[in-house]
Write a structure and sequence with these properties.
The protein is of the alpha+beta class and 389 residues long. The chain contains 5 helices and 22 strands. Strands 7, 9, 10, 12, 15 and 18 form a 6-stranded antiparallel β-sheet that branches. A 6-stranded antiparallel β-sheet has the order 8-11-17-13-14-16, with no helix packed on it. The longest helix has 21 residues.
Length: 389
């Protein structure tokens, strides 16, 4: 559906109902932006439904995903597969309960909000093939022997603070002043990459960060040996959020790889995981890696209600309108509701009699109720399980 009503159209309709007094408002544009936001807070408009590709692809055992930037509140509708669906009905639950279940109940969705960041959490039973390269719970995990890389030092097993298995590999940053630090193993049990080529597969690994200061990125090298390998660089966590102190899940997609030498895809034995850092990042402790795994993802979409109520003339979604040619994200009946909300807001600012404004509000509420009856919200309703049985 192409939207047809512009900011200019909305202003003209409102101005006609306030007897041409819209010019005395502090900002007619902000009044209209406020009208769109307020109306969208009262009713879920069908035109606000968006479908976007889930990032990353959906994986069994991977729980954190990129939350759409324009998601309105927690109004998720569905996580449908682009092809064959493996998950049934999804259930929206609080982030606390999602974490407590720890993936034991498939089909759970949560929106985790913290520090001004939002993460989409999904527990899926989708069939995503995987290979555990190394659980990284000892220096011999996965075959061969893990050793320090770059400025890493004091590599050892940590059985007190880990994500999976029985431990993690911990290491410190030395005082050498180099620009890399991590771990490497040139004799890992052979991994065949053949079935994981094609764009939906990724390596995942957990890393514990003591301080994010002066960390530029993380790099994974995987290949035949130290002279023949692919490399992939990431600058954020798997869910798209910035690196943070504590445990971070890294995702290295099997796409757009940089190849050094010539890699034999069927016999991967060499793996190195390390950070790129400033030379001044020295003499720090308590860095870790845990659970290096290769997974094949399944392409899914996210269906949700968007809080963006406008589009530019180039069809880019916007939260607030800035020019007269911006389009209101609304069908005809929805546009009429926004007009009525705008009239109420304008009359309040101008100073119309209260009884007149109340009458307008009553009419709008009746129209919203009728619209909602004809267009029930598709958003998931929060469910709670107070006890585990």
């Amino acid at each position: 559906m192409s939207f047809i009503y512009t900011q200019s159209d909305l202003q003209s309709r409102i101005n006609a109902r306030v007897q041409g007094k819209i010019g005395i408002l502090i900002s007619a544009q902000e009044m209209m932006n406020g009208a769109v936001r307020e109306l969208k807070s009262k009713v879920d408009l069908r035109s606000a439904i968006r479908k976007a590709t889930l990032s990353p692809n959906l994986y069994n055992g991977i729980f954190d995903y990129t939350c759409p930037a324009d998601l309105q509140a927690d109004k998720i509708i569905d996580i449908p597969a682009q092809a064959i669906r493996a998950d049934g009905e999804w259930q929206l639950t609080p982030a606390e309960e999602f974490d407590r279940q720890n993936g034991k109940i498939p089909g759970l969705i949560a929106i985790d909000t913290f520090n001004g960041t939002r993460v989409l959490k999904l527990a899926s039973q989708v069939n995503s093939n995987s290979i555990i390269v190394a659980e990284l719970d000892s220096t011999t995990s996965g075959g061969g022997t893990w050793a320090v890389f770059g400025d890493a030092t004091n590599l050892a097993r940590d059985d007190a603070d880990y994500i999976k298995g029985n431990g993690a590999l911990k290491w410190d940053i030395s005082s050498a002043g180099g620009t890399t630090a991590g771990i490497v193993n040139a004799a890992v049990n052979t991994v065949d990459l053949t079935d994981y080529l094609g764009g939906t597969s990724s390596f995942f690994v957990w890393t514990k960060i003591n301080s994010t200061t002066n960390i530029t990125n993380y790099i994974l090298r995987f290949g035949t040996d130290s002279s023949n390998y692919y490399s992939k660089t990431v600058t954020a966590q798997a869910d798209g959020t910035a690196f943070a102190a504590g445990w971070n899940l890294l995702r290295f997609d099997i796409s757009s790889l940089t190849e050094t030498g010539s890699v034999t895809d069927t016999t991967l034995n060499y793996f190195a995981i390390y950070m790129t850092k400033a030379a001044g990042k020295i003499s720090e402790t308590d860095y870790k890696f845990d659970w290096l795994v290769l997974k094949k993802g399944v392409i899914h979409n996210t269906r949700y209600y968007s809080k963006y109520g406008w589009q530019s003339s180039a069809a880019a979604y916007k939260e607030n309108s800035t020019v007269a040619t911006d389009l209101v994200v609304a069908d005809t009946d929805e546009f009429e509701l926004i007009v009525k909300q705008g009239i109420i807001n304008a009359k309040k600012e101008i100073g119309y009699p209260e009884n007149e404004i109340v009458s307008e509000e009553n009419k709008l509420n009746a129209d919203i109720l009728l619209y909602a009856q004809n267009n029930p919200s598709q958003a998931k309703i929060h469910g709670y399980n107070y006890y585990d049985y």
